[in-house]
Amino acid sequence: MSFESQPQEGAPSGSRRPPFFFREEYSSLIVRGNFMTLAAKPNLVEEGEWLAHQVVEQYRLLEQMINIIKVPDERTGKPCCNPEVCPTMSASGHTYTWLDNNKKPIKIPAIQYINLVQKWISGKITDPSIFPTDTTSARFTDSASSYASGSMTPSSTPQPLGPTSINAPLSQLSGREWLGKSSGFPETFESDIKSIYRQMMRCYAHIYHGHWLDPFWHAGAYKELNTCFVHFINVGKLFNLITDKEIEPMQPLVDVWLSKGLLPPPPQAAQAAKEGAPSAGQPQGVAS
């Protein structure tokens, strides 16, 4: 069910209040704490390994939200996101297309798009050539397989090894550098995880704009949705996995969390803070 904003009482004709999910009173979360601490890379963990863990974890959380919009309605027997209600994958004036077998963009129902995204992401994160689990040539042991499983924390403390194994592939011995190279990730790893993040962002945008009221508000689950999404945005902004353009359909809610200090400030604000200038949106504890 798409949710439209309502006219504000006493407002001029044509004026509209923002959707509920963009209003501060509905921006609360289910936890207290600091999401920036949760996203921060441990000192002994290689960045590629940490981001692989974070991307898998973000997908696990998103899947839980997707499962909610797939639950059949008791009255109709259909999920709230179905081809009749959501004939396209859209959010706030943005319509997302899928490439067909001929590489041509086509509009498809949102639930079909989401199903394809899930299949595509699952294929990526279970492909050992993209998300390797063999740590023979990695800088750290023990942590890799536990991160790939989607666990929030490693099963043991990573221990630094020698700089390079003699069994490392030839590409690792070359002079080129890339994200995750020392942990055995391919040269395309950074572009792969950014593509995954972009598709997950589209799913969140559709969930909010198409289904915040039904089922999340009606089921009392909107705070869970907010918590998953603020963690997703925090990791994405902290490690530059997502652009402002991609966040655009949800920017008003992101701005609310920025004003509360729940997300890292924009680069210019962060630089001003480093130089001692006062800056809004400094990291603080999460308020429920």
TrEMBL record:
Residues 267-288 are annotated as: Disordered. Pfam families: Mob1_phocein. It comes from the Eukaryota. InterPro entries: MOB_kinase_act_fam, MOB_kinase_act_sf. Residues 269-278 have a biased composition (Low complexity). PANTHER family: MPS ONE BINDER KINASE ACTIVATOR-LIKE MOB. This is Mob1/phocein. It comes from Paraconiothyrium brasiliense. The lineage of its organism: Eukaryota, Fungi, Dikarya, Ascomycota, Pezizomycotina.
